[in-house]
Amino acid sequence: IDFWLSDNLYNTLQSNSVRQQLADDSQLALVVPAFQIPSQCRINEGHECRTANIAHIPRTKEDMVFMVNHQQASAFDPTNKGGHGSTRYGDWNSMDEGSIMTIPCVTSNRYEPYLAFRFCEDLPPFQDHFTGYGKNKMTQIMHMRRNGYLFKQLGGSFLVHYPHMDSKSRKEWNVGKQRDKKTDVELLTFKRGRVDKVFAEFRCWLENEIIDDSRTPMCSDALDDDEKLLLRSEDKICKRVRQPAKN
């Protein structure tokens, strides 16, 4: 488990105000902001390292705000702007515990926040094709947005990434990341290339087969997600078909 909950997250989600909003809208998805802290170790991840890291993890909003203000913590994975860039971290600082703020639009199809929502029959599932590492969360969230889920941000609570070295799956994913896509290298020999191809096919299926009922749309200045795909240009093209009309 590499994300730790703030001490109050469970009680916040169980509060009357939050439960009422979830009851009123079966397609409400609450974004729990995710943060990261640096590791207290430089070399290994032994017992002493784990003890030091755990002691450094903030438990309350006050602790987190203090650490962010003193550059001891930051929004999770700032190098991946699409991943959590739509979360309103600046606004979160002044949000009361249990308050909820609308996220008007998302800046990237790569958005993959951690969510709290009702478990209902119409909830899009994780796609089996993305089991393991790579694009499992973001494809579910794309599907949820397309189906009409409304994304709002939860105040006062958060998640913290426990710092650790790259896993075996992450290392495998990173192989070929810096390859020049103009060379004769066969990109589909890399795990990332294979997953990205399935992602492009999934996105095309979503656009062609699922009626767009989005209540949290893409922003007008959204990032160009295709630049991140380890695919050749022809593999990114989606042949559009006419969508069925809404009822």
UniProtKB/TrEMBL annotation:
Keywords: Glycoprotein, Membrane, Signal-anchor, Transmembrane, Transmembrane helix
One GO biological process term: protein O-linked glycosylation via mannose
InterPro entries with a match to the protein in the record: Xyl/GlcA_transferase (IPR051292)
Superkingdom field: Eukaryota
Predominant cellular place of this UniProt entry's protein: membrane
Parts forming coiled coils: none
GO cellular component: membrane
Nucleotide-binding in keyword set: no
Membrane-topology descriptor: Single-pass type II membrane protein
One Pfam family it belongs to: Glyco_transf_49
Keyword Transmembrane helix: yes
UniProt GO molecular function: glucuronosyltransferase activity; xylosyltransferase activity
Localization in the cell: Membrane
Protein's recorded name: Uncharacterized protein
